[in-house]
Amino acid sequence: MDFNDIQNAWNNEKSDSIILPDNLEKIRSANTPLDRIKKNLKYELILQVILVFLIGFVPYICSFEQKFIVPFYLLYSMAVAVTIYYLAKLYLFYKRLNTVALSTKDSLYETYFDIRLNMELYKTFGFALTPFMILYLVVFVYFKSSKEADFVMFEFSNAEIISVFSVVVFAILSMGLGLEWWVHFFYGKYAKEIKKVIDQLKEE
Question: Of 1, 60, 65, 110, whose CB count within 10 A is highest?
Answer without folding.
Answer: 110
